[in-house]
Amino acid sequence: MELGYVVRVSVTGHLEAIPVLPEVPQETLCGLLETDVTERLRVPVMPEDWEAEDFVLCYFIDARGGDKELPANALGTCFYHTGCPICGDLLLAACAQDSDSAAVRGFAKAQADTLLEWLREQFPAYVQS
């Protein structure tokens, strides 16, 4: 079975592609974020090459990150567009365009590589090279 990948953005701006099952269960997201509950938010932009893709780019955070007093994630806060901080590491994954669907997919290796490069190019102040 071919693996999928989610991309972790740490609070320090470190980027990492993490191998996961192609269909990512909620338990995997919780485990990677060391929490019991996650929150899914949509990234308002994605790489231009992905405009024809059948998914939207979402990020997952520890839903209790603020209560746990986790440090702010500058990139996540930038994605959020409200000025309110996003706390803790975040995971980027592919989600169905249907907002009622809870399905989460890992990226193909080439997609994960594209996403890592795009993040470095678009957000150089927030990520480590």
Give the helix tally.
Answer: 3
- In terms of DSSP E residues, the strand content is 25-35%
Shape: globular
> Which stretches are low in confidence, meaning pLDDT under 50 for 5 or more residues running?
none
Main sheet, how many strands, which sense, barrel? 6 strands, antiparallel
The total count of strands amounts to 6
Distance between the termini: 31 Å
Characterization of the model:
- By secondary structure, the chain is of the alpha+beta class.
- Helix content is 22%, strand content 26%.
- It contains 3 helices and 6 strands.
- Strands 1, 2, 3, 4, 5 and 6 form a 6-stranded antiparallel β-sheet that branches.
- β5 (90-96) and β6 (104-105) form a beta hairpin.
- It is globular and about 35 Å long.
- 30% of the residues are buried.
- The mean pLDDT is 91.
Keywords:
3 helices, 129 residues, single chain, six-stranded antiparallel beta sheet
In short:
This protein is α+β, with helices and mostly antiparallel strands and 129 residues long.
Topology (SSEs and partners):
Layout: E1 4-9, E2 15-20, H1 26-33, E3 38-42, E4 55-62, H2 74-80, E5 90-96, E6 104-105, H3 109-122
Antiparallel strand pairs: 1-2, 1-5, 3-4, 4-5, 5-6
